[in-house]
Amino acid sequence: MHSIFDIDVIKKDGRSYSLSILKGKTLLIVNTASHCRFTPQYQELELLHKKYEHLGLVVMAFPCNQFAKQEPESADKIEAFCQLNYGVSFAIHNKVMVNGNETTPLYQFLKSRAKGVLGSESIKWNFTKFLVSSDGQTVKRFSPTTSPMKLETQINDYLSNK
């Protein structure tokens, strides 16, 4: 895999699409959960989406139930929860595995390009964030405790380097 744009992902309705349709866009990819102490970050993710979408930012949520089973709901229920509680209008995808033998190709790519603390590849918790440059090559990882709004400087840098 040369770039993230070589990968297919699955929409919440179960249909697959290629990330190649997002070439030239800056991606903010987050593994999410509805029953997590970081769930309120959806609000800041939505603010970033609304503020920067017209400049080329694409916010993408990938629900994950691997951490304390904090995302047990179906894709439709997850989306409804996010819209009702946080006004989310960015893409909520099908649930994914971010660690282990069933890790999705997307997260295999992200983890190999942006290691965590002490060089670890594993995702430690919900709301780990990855910022991907518009050429699909540069990937930065941010911890679950990092507020999405703290990424604004990096987002602006990525958007201005298109």
What does this protein structure show overall?
The radius of gyration is 14 Å and the shape is globular. It has 162 residues and is an alpha/beta fold. Helix 1 (41-52) links the parallel strand 3 (26-32) and strand 4 (57-63). The protein has helices at residues 41-52, 75-86, 105-113, 152-160, and strands spanning 8-10, 16-18, 26-32, 57-63, 91-92, 129-132, 139-142. It has one domain (4-160): Glutaredoxin (3-Layer(aba) Sandwich), CATH 3.40.30.10. It is built from four helices and seven strands, in the order βββαβαβαββα.
Q: Main β-sheet: number of strands, strand sense, barrel status?
A: 5 strands, mixed
Give the overall pLDDT as a whole number: 94
Q: Classify the helix fraction into a percent range.
A: 25-40%
Distance between the termini: 21 Å
Summarize the helix and strand pattern as letters. EEEHEHEHEEH
How many strand units? 7
